[in-house]
Amino acid sequence: MAMTNLQELSKTPYLAGLQSIMLLTTPVISPATVSPSYVKYQPVLNASTLSTIKNYLYSAKYIGPTNKSCYLFGAALAMGTGMLVDKDIENGSGFVSAWSALYLIASSRGSIKAVAYGKVWPLLLSGIACINSLAYGKRYVSCQFK
Questions:
Q1: Pairwise CA distance, residues 6 & 78, whole Å
Q2: Residue 24: inside a domain, yes or no?
Q3: Name one GO cellular component term (predicted).
């Protein structure tokens, strides 16, 4: 029953619009904060600072999605929502599915780590991206455009 409702919702722009609005309001609702494990780069190179450089290169700078990624993915999903509003379900569902999958690739690991710091909003963003990617992707791949 729930899967049927999700298939019916993938004909509408509501899920894509929800993800777009959530992403565009993220800098206000849950701004990215500097990670406490992030270590500033020290320009002096010696044996004791090699681990500092390694931590700098491989540690996340921010907890949660940055403003740039929120605006980029939010704008792209708003374009996909516009396609769906114009009843271009074929292109809109493929576009929204692709951008939602890209958001998952770029942000899913960081959103899971953000839960350890008490931030749930990034996990909600990844959850709606997963739902959109599956729902619109299924519609696009199975060619159910009617």
A1: 20
A2: yes
A3: mitochondrion
In-domain check, residue 134? yes
How many domains does the structure of the chain reveal?
1
What is the pTM (predicted TM-score) of this model?
0.78
- Residue 124: inside a domain, yes or no? yes
The answer to whether position 54 is within a domain reads no
Return the ∠ at Cα 120 (arms to 52 and 137), rounded to 5°: 100
DSSP letter, residue 119: -
* Residue range(s) defining the domain that contains residue 23: 2-33+64-141
Report the SS3 class of residue 39: coil
**Which percentage of the chain shows pLDDT scores above 70?**
77
Give CA–CA dist 56/53, Å, rounded. 5
Mean pLDDT, to the nearest integer, of 102-110?
88
8 A C-beta contact, residue 110 and residue 60: yes
Q: Is the pLDDT assigned to residue 64 strictly greater than 90?
A: no
Kindly tell me the burial class for residue 100, based on how many C-beta atoms sit within 10 Å of its own C-beta (0-12, 13-18, 19 or more). buried
With contact defined as beta carbons under 8 Å apart, do 77 and 100 qualify? Answer: yes
Of residues 8 and 80, more confidence is placed in 80
Range of weakest confidence among 5-9, 24-28, 59-63: 59-63
